[in-house]
Structure formats: C-alpha cells, structure tokens
Amino acid sequence: MQVLSVSERLSFHERDMFYIPLEYSPYLDTHVMHWVDQIIQDMSDSSEIIQQVYEGIVPEKAVEEEFEKLISGRTIPSYLSVKLLKQIFMEKLFGYGILQFLINDPEVTDIFVNDHETVLKRTAGKDIPVKIRFRDEQHVEEYLRTILMRVNANINRYEPIVDSRDLKYHLRINGAIQPVVKKPYFTIRKHPSESLTMRDLIQLGTLPPELARDLQIYIESGMNILISGPTGSGKTTLLRGLTEYIHPLERIVVIEEEEELQIWHRNIVAMESRHKKGDDEVDIIMDDLVRNAMRMSPKRIILGELRGKEALNLIRAFGTGHDGGMTTIHANNVSSALHQLAFLMLYADTPLKLEHFLSMIADSVDVVIHLVQHRVVDVAEVMAYEKQTGQIHTRSLWKWKGEQNSRTQHYIQQHPSSLFMEKVNFRRAIHQRSIG
User: Fold this and answer.
1) Alpha helix (H) ranges present in 151-234?
2) pTM summary value
3) Rounded distance, CA 312 to CA 331, Å?
4) 15: burial class by Cβ within 10 Å (0-12, 13-18, 19+)?
C-alpha cells in the first residue's frame, strides 16, 4: 500500500489533482482474509451451518459458538487478532463484508460500486474514491446477489434491476446486472437509524434557530409546505424533523413508497405503496393511497416524496380543507419546484392544462423550503399565479447568502407580506380551536 507524504499530497493539490484517501480496512489485508476464508471453508466442510446462514435459518449466536469451537483448536499467528478474525467472519456472513466499515461510518451517506475497480463514498455531499477493489465483475455480481438474498430480494437476467431495503441496517440498495448494463453496479443509500431532531439540525448547520422558530409557527398554523432540493440534499431528514411541531393529538396520515420517515406520533396512520409481485396481487400506487387518505378524516396529509400523478390529488387535498400538509420534490430552486409539481400533475391525464395546475398550486401551497447539501438556502411564501407570464410569484422570507463550503449562518430575512400573515393568523386560530 503506497503512503503519500505531506509534501506529495500538497503537490497533488497544486496540480489540481485528487488523491485516493488511504483508509484502513482489514478486508485489504490478505493474511486476515486468507484466515477468514479458510475458517468459512472448514466450517462449511464440517457442517451445514454456513448453508443455513445463507438460508436465514440459523441465529448469529449459534454461528459465533461454532466459530469459537473451530478457532480454539488452531494456532493463530501472533500478528493476527482472534477478535478481529471473529469480527470479519461475522461481518462477512451476516453483514456487508468488504463494505462493512463504510456501513458503520456515520459520516458516509452513500456507497457507490460503479464496477469492480471503482468504489466511492459520499460524505458531506462529496463523492470520494475509496481504496477498495473487488476481484472482477463476477465478484461484484456475486456480492450483490448475496446481500440481496439476506433482504429477501433477487436479481437475475429476467429482472436485471433491483431496488430493495435492508431494515436491519436502514439501507436502500439499488443495482443492475446484464443485459441492462455492461458491468454490474449497485449503490447503497444509508438512512439514519435514529431520527435527527430539529435541535440536531440546528446544531449541524441545516438552519438557524430563528428560522426554525418561524417554520414552527407556519406548521402550527396549518400552512401547506413543499420541501425541495436535489437528490441527497436532506429533504426527508428536514421533513421528519418538522413533524415535531405538529400537535401530538392531530390526526395525520403519512404516505410513502417506502417507509423512510419513521415518524413517531400519537395519532398517526402510515401507509406504503405496493408493487404487484404475483398473479393474486394488485398494484397499490401512491395516488390510490392519497385518495384513500382523504376519506380517513386526517387533519394533515404528509407525503414522503412526489414522483407522479398523486401530485394532483395531494394538491386537491391541500386546497379542500386538509391544511398543514407537507411533501418533498426534486428541484433546483423554489421556482423550479413549483413548476415540477405542475408537470407531475399532468401525469393524472385530466382535461386540465398546465396553467390550471399552476393556478391550483398557487392557491394551495403556502411555503416552499429549498435545501442544498443539507442546508436550507431559501424559504419563500407562495403569492399568486400570473396568467400573462405563466409564472407563480414567490417572495423569499429567508435566503442564505454565504460560501458553498462555509458553515456561517448568514441569511437575509424579509418580513412576510400582509396577505401571508393574515393567512397564518387565520389558520392558526382555526387549528387552535380544532385541537382544543
């Protein structure tokens, strides 16, 4: 393993090149891996316990005991730690093996295996190469099949794309093999096992406490909020945090394609869509769940992420008495978020035109919060739709002005319009009456 001196690293930066961080992983130690593989092989030869591991019918404790028996009769070289061998052994059988140290790293949010020679991690929004290699393309595919087997998922040439979840480690696994790609790849997105509170988000620099207090007022008043941002910008994390400001007795319905929000609330119904897997099953799509939610007498509807025609029924709900709803959408700025929402409403295949949807949005959405790299950069009130220009007018209430990599909390704040404050005060009075 090559070690870069401080002067060499500096010279790399001076030439505008990057270096691969030298991260330690015992999976790169050929001596460690030789012993672990040998133990697995010997255990497989002497019993059926390894096969039972892959079938998910043997507890980890039983395998640990089997390891202890096998290792006790061996002479282990002094430079090897039995504790480390056991850790790698268990991680390889029950965890993520060569990638386990990245799974364990709380600063890593995503892992990308583009091919057997290219592995990257995403930390603080930056993609960084990792000094890990798989043997070949077949090794990548075998590894992907193994981790999918443990979450009751499968990938093959007839279904070459997979999107699944590991509830134990709070992961989302997406990958593909031939024939849709030349080389097998997969990505692992990590969801925090513990929800970040609003206090956590303030401390992490996502937003200042003064802005959090304003958002609390908007939520308690029943304003309809759209959270926008690029992929991995922190939309879901913020949405989960903002639910702290909802009164614990207000009835809410949470709708998601896959459970990621994990909201704790005293008066909640959480629903997930379902894709048809067998002949005796039917698709339950997000639009079905939104329409059903409107019949459940909720005070608020919270939808994890807008992706399709469910947008129309959600905006209808926002505009017909289900105030205080929240959802997220992929977009590059506030204006783009509102137009993306209108484009999704077009999927509903109604005789209405884009201008009708834009008008509905202006009447139903009250606030847009935009994030970039886990920082709130814009909070805007939605004002009105202007038919002549085809634009929804917005007005920034909080706008971040700072360097992209700076942690400084420099915001420009504007007072809300009188119309907006009238709406806040009216809705607040209504909500206070409804919750006693």
Assistant:
1) 198-204, 209-220
2) 0.76
3) 18
4) exposed
User: CA dihedral in degrees (292, 194, 265, 207; nearest 10)?
Assistant: -90
* Sheet of 108-115, strands arranged across: 126-129, 118-123, 108-115, 185-190, 171-176, 161-166
The DSSP letter of residue 84 is H
pLDDT tens string 230-245: 988 899 999 999 999 9
- φ, ψ for residue 6 (rounded to 5)? -60, -45
Q: Please write the tens of the pLDDT for every residue from 141-200.
A: 999 998 998 888 889 999 999 988 887 888 989 999 999 999 999 999 987 766 789 999
In the structure encoding, which two tokens stand for residue 413, read together? 């704040």
Q: Quick one: which H or E segment has residue 88?
A: helix 82-94
Cα–Cα dist 38/40, whole Å: 5
Neighbour count for residue 365 (Cβ, 10 Å): 24
Task: Please state, in angstroms and rounded to a whole number, the distance separating the CA atoms of residues 274 and 104.
Answer: 30
DSSP, residue by residue, 202-217 = HHHTSS-HHHHHHHHH
* Cα–Cα distance for residue pair 377/409, rounded to 1 Å: 10
Of residues 407 and 208, more confidently modeled: 208
Q: What are phi and psi of 423, to 5 degrees?
A: -65, -45
- In which residue are the tokens 């480690």 written? 169
Q: Are 312 and 341 in contact (CB under 8 A)?
A: no
